[in-house]
TrEMBL record:
The keyword Signal applies. This is Prolamin-like domain. Transmembrane segments: none annotated. InterPro entries: Prolamin-like. Keywords: Signal. It comes from Arabidopsis thaliana x Arabidopsis arenosa. Coiled coil: none annotated. Residues 1-20 form the signal peptide.
Length: 115
């Protein structure tokens, strides 16, 4: 029961982070729902947090999360990272975040190919 409870808590944290970082004015409601339905549901909440940590901080990512990221797809990954990086408080370092995002993608592709 506590494992289920912690998974629900983690899911709410991911949703809150995405809502906090995604500028309301740049995402149409239908587009946000489409991104949620097609992108975010493909990865676990923990992996989503790890991905955000790698790109926007100095986090690390596990091989299973890399595999989830690759399954999510490059378009989903790029779109979600771009939305977060466009946040006014982050935009000054957008180029750095997008490079880290590309580096993460390339790393995860190489991990998934070797698996």
């Amino acid at each position: 029961m506590s494992k289920f409870s912690s998974q629900i808590t983690t899911l709410f944290i991911v949703v809150a982070l995405v809502c906090a970082f995604v500028p309301v004015f740049s995402v149409e409601e239908a587009e946000a729902k489409s991104l949620w339905n097609t992108c975010l549901v493909k990865i676990t909440p923990k992996c989503a947090l790890d991905i955000i940590g790698v790109v926007f901080e100095n986090g690390t990512i596990s091989d299973p999360c890399c595999n989830d990221l690759v399954k999510e797809g490059k378009v989903c990954h790029d779109t979600l990272i771009k939305y977060i990086a466009d946040k006014p408080m982050l935009i000054a370092h957008e180029t750095e975040y997008l490079k880290k995002s590309d580096d993460l993608w390339n790393h995860c592709v190489s991990i998934s190919k070797s698996a």
